[in-house]
Each structure stands twice: as C-alpha cells, then as structure tokens.
Write a structure and sequence with these properties.
Blueprint lengths: L16 E7 L12 E8 L2 E5 L2 E5 L3 E5 L5 E5 L13 E8 L15 H10 L3 E3 L1 H14 L4 H17 L3 E3 L14 H14 L6 H7 L4 H12 L3 H19 L4 H7 L5 H12 L3 H12 L1
Antiparallel strand pairs: 1-7, 2-5, 2-7, 3-4, 3-6, 5-8, 8-9
C-alpha cells in the first residue's frame, strides 16, 4: 500500500508542480499532502472522497483541495477490467505550497480574496458551472507555458476562483484528520472493501475482521478516521449509485433500490430523502426537467 503522505516534486525550472495524467485507471489511495491541489478530470468517472464527503464524479469534475485534507478518487469497476481496456483516465493536476513564492506573499493586502479562497479550500471545494469551463481551459493552456507565463496563468486561475460563486465546500466543518496517523493501510483496506461491495450485502463483522478489530472498536475507529459511521458511508454510496440509475436508466424505483444494494424499500426511501432532500421520483422529475 502506498503511503498516506504523498510527496510532490517540483523541477528546478518551476516553483510549483503541474502534471497531465493519462492512465488506464486511478491507483492513488486515500492520501494527503502539504500542498494545495487543483485537479480537473477530463476523462473517466467513479467515486470521490474528500474528507468526510463522498460522491460520484464524471468527466469535467474539478476540485480544489487544501493542505493535509485526505482525498481519494476511484474509478468505476469497469476501468479495472481487462475487457474494458479501451477506457482511460485523463487529468490535469496543479500542486503548490502556500509559501512557494515566499512566506508572507499571500498575506499582502492585494491577496485577501485568494487568502479567503485558501481558507475555504481546507474543506475541499468543488468548482462547477462557467467557472469550471474557464478554469479547465486555462489548465489545458498552462501545460504548454513555462517561466513567468506559467506563473501568471496560475495567478489568473486563483483570481478567478477567489471571485467565483460557482464553488461549494465538500467536507464538513467538523472534519479533522490527524496528519501523523499510522492508520493508512487500515483505512485504505476498508475503503477498498466498501467500494467493491456497497452494491451487495456488507457485513460489519467481515469489514472489522479485515483490519483485525472487534465490531465496536472498528466502529469507533472508522468514525474517528473518516468523520462518518460505517453505515452512513455505505448509504451515501448506495444513494449516489441510485441517483445515477435514476438519471441514466429506465429501471423502476423499486428495481433501483435493490440494484443499489438496499434490501428494504422503505429504508431506501428514507435514506434517499435524508441524503438528497427529495424522494427518488422527485429527483428523477427534477433531472428530466433540467434536460428539457
């Protein structure tokens, strides 16, 4: 298992890191690092975890993550299967330390809005709408810039983000992760187990046994490390999958309930409304009205 603390390298020609990833599937585990990270995924889909927030991602997904905030992307299962080897992942990622231009650079009066953006990024930010489109284009362009032009482009990006209203916080204000934790392998083991099995019956005892814990110890460990109970995490993934089926399939709500891993229709309805604030039928109705 790769380490929880990811090390980001920069070259002698640049004070911050930019990379274009083209992969068959995402392999980076749940991790954190001291750098800010701006990522746009232009190809592929799957599940995304930021702190205690979890949701599905699709092409165009863009997040801005602050230092030491754990995050994790995993593609849908078909990306890991040989019969779908034509699928690929493409992402552009920018990493930079807050003090990469000097300790007090971003504390100057002209940087107030960007400093406010940095504070919000400690919870992880999702960028959407027109802002997403504009920033995505600038991230494509920055791949081919160097020197001062590259640095100036980064400032353009940060300035646009700092003034945008098309940004939302992801992780809850209460989420806090101790960055010196030695629990990376256990957390990753459980995340992988959940992601592989959330559409099936998941057994708490089996999950706990994977990291050699009793059920009660496991439940305390999971809540402390992820900010959610084991059942909350599973229900959010299942409801997210149900939302996707409501948008993309012709299955009935009852069929979607069982396809998403729930084995009780009333419980599915309650959890769906708790998480999305609407019923499954209303969710589909809202989606169809947006399509028209």
């Amino acid at each position: 298992m790769e380490p929880l603390l990811e090390k980001i390298s920069v070259t002698s020609k640049s004070s911050f890191a930019i990379k274009e990833d083209i992969l068959s599937h995402i392999t980076t585990p749940w991790h954190f690092h001291p750098e800010f990270e701006l990522t746009v995924i232009t190809e592929s889909e799957g599940k995304r975890f930021v702190g205690d927030h979890v949701e599905f991602f699709y092409p165009g997904d863009m997040i801005f993550v602050g230092p030491n905030l754990p995050h994790f992307h995993r593609n849908n299962e078909k990306y890991y299967q040989k019969e779908h080897d034509q699928l690929k992942v493409r992402a552009i990622v920018i990493h930079f330390l807050k003090d990469f231009l000097g300790k007090d650079f971003f504390d100057k009066p002209e940087m107030i809005k960007i400093n406010q953006l940095f504070a919000r990024a400690m919870r992880g930010l999702k960028v959407y709408g027109k802002t997403n489109e504009v920033i995505s284009q600038k991230m494509e362009e920055i791949l081919y810039l160097d020197g001062f032009e590259r640095l100036l482009q980064l400032f353009h990006i940060l300035n646009i983000l700092s003034h945008s209203k098309e940004i939302k916080e992801l992780s809850s204000p209460a989420f806090h992760y101790p960055v010196d934790s030695s629990d990376v392998e256990r957390v990753n083991t459980i995340y992988q187990y959940i992601l592989l099995n959330y559409k099936k019956t998941i057994n708490l005892e089996e999950a706990a046994s994977l990291i050699s814990m009793s059920n009660s110890t496991f439940c305390r460990f999971f809540k402390k490390r992820t900010g959610k109970t084991f059942s909350e995490m599973i229900n959010e993934l299942r409801v997210g999958h149900a939302c996707r089926l409501l948008m993309e399939s012709e299955l009935t709500v009852t069929q979607i309930c069982y396809e998403s891993g729930f084995n009780n229709f009333s419980y599915f309805q309650r959890q769906f409304k708790k998480i999305t604030k609407v019923t499954p039928l209303k969710y589909k109705e809202n989606f169809l009205s947006q399509e028209e």
